[in-house]
Amino acid sequence: MNLENMTKIYARGDSRIQLKVIPGHFVTSQSHITHYLDLTTMKSRTAEAQNIAHELAANYEVSTPVDTIICMDGLEVIGAYLSEELTKAGIFSLNAHQTIYVITPESSNSGQIIFRDNFQPMIKGKNVLILNGSITTGSTLSKAIESILYYGGTIRGIAAIFSRVDSVASLPVYSIFNTKDIPDYHSYSSTNVQCVRGSKKSMPLSAATDIQLCKSSKYFIKEIVTRIDDFVWGPVMLILLVGTGIFLTVRTRFLTWSNLGYALKSTLSKEARTKSRGQGDVSPFSALTTALAATIGTGNIVGAATAMVSGGPGALV
Known about the structure:
- Mean pLDDT is 80; it is low at 194-217.
- Helix 2 (46-57) crosses helix 3 (76-88) and helix 9 crosses helix 10 (298-311).
- The protein is an alpha/beta fold.
- The chain is 36% helix and 20% strand.
- The chain contains 10 helices and 12 strands.
- Strand 1 (7-10) and strand 2 (18-27) form a beta hairpin.
- The strands form 3 sheets. A 6-stranded mixed sheet has the order 5-4-8-9-11-10.
């Protein structure tokens, strides 16, 4: 990363808090951004972490209960100091030991935010404060909110070092820095922005995060697959399926409809199940059920029938 263009922005409430900003063109999994925010020293230096925690704690009143702090973006050090600052300020905690939990969630292979079994009691029935490094689109934060609500937590506040948005899911976001501090900061959806074909100087590479240049092959492959998927399963495929059905129906002179009565009588009537059904070892009804089993699945047929016999027609609902 080219550090020559790096600038420092000082917090309005505390000049000891410095945000390092590098302009350029960067790509995250959710959006394109015009500035890279270096939070490395804020996460690791205890003095900076303590100053940030003190500044964030001032946004919460004594009447706001906080039992657990969820640390996103690797902010465990700041989270520990924030719990200490909130306790000093007299923030009420419902925990039996009168202290605040500080935990970090995990991400599953599908991108969902989860909490392990040993952390779940620290979420269920607790008043939760979410601590973020930077909030650009709010996509990751929304996943965290959904996860906390799923595990039975109550969200009491959202704190961040930098936030481009004022609220997420109707919850206010309190941040030390915002777009007023970085007027040229912009964020664009990854699905609506074309890659910039400029020189490498305008697209610096970040080795500290998972940010990638938008010219990466992975990005293009994902875009190609997405567009193919949208085309195949879009209106075009629906028109082809319906159109093909109508075309074949007309070409066969509505054979499927004109012979429907005969087909039902030949397979579902009483004669079709008796010995007088005609030649062959398999009855028309047996042939129908075998074809349905091959198409739908034997388990679905037997399972539905068993459910209806055991619980009545309401079992299908």
